[in-house]
Every structure is written in C-alpha cells, then in structure tokens.
Amino acid sequence: MIFTLNFDMYDKAKIKANILPAVASFLCPGLGQAYEGRWFAAVFFFIITAVGYAFLLPLGICVHIVTICEALLYHARIHSAAKDS
Predict the structure, then answer these.
(1) Is residue 82 pLDDT above 80, yes or no?
(2) What's the 3-state SS for 55-72?
(3) Environment class of residue 49 by beta-carbon count within 10 Å: exposed (0-12), middle (13-18) or buried (19+)?
C-alpha cells in the first residue's frame, strides 16, 4: 500500500511532542535539534541560518524554514520508526 493513515499520530500528546522541536527551531534556529540531543546539527543549522540572515534576508528566511521543517520531520520519523520496531 502506498499511503497509510496512522491515526495514532493524532493523539494530542503525540502532536505536542512532534511540534515542540519545530516551535523551538522557530524561536531560535537549531534549538529544536538541540532539544532532540543532536548538538552537531543544532550548531550547524544555527550558523548556516545566521550566515544566511547576515548576507541575504530571503536566504536566511529559507534556511530558517528548512530548519523548522527538519526538526519536525526528524522527530516524527524517529518516533514512528521506534514504534514500528
């Protein structure tokens, strides 16, 4: 089956757990990765976003959005993989 709908993802506690790293990354780039214990990724995203904002505002905004999405998707992917195993 190509697409499966996982109703367990809609549990309120799980939604909060999945959104928390993304909100943290929205507040400060890399903070969501640090929350997940990924320190190298946190420093990397913080520096890349700061450089993006310093040189070109649209580039900084794009990198900041990527940082937020990466924190959200990484957290959801890791927890869904742990549930499957």
Answers:
(1) no
(2) HCHHHHHHHHHHHHHHHH
(3) buried
Q: How far apart are CA 72 and CA 20, in angstroms?
A: 8
Distance CA 68, CA 21 (A): 8
CA 84 to chain centre: 21
Question: At 14, which amino acid appears?
Answer: K
CA 79 to chain centroid, in Å, comes to 13
Angle between helix 57-84 and 12-27 (nearest 10)? 150
How far from the centroid of its chain's Cα atoms is residue 1's Cα?
A: 27
State the pTM of this model. Answer: 0.71
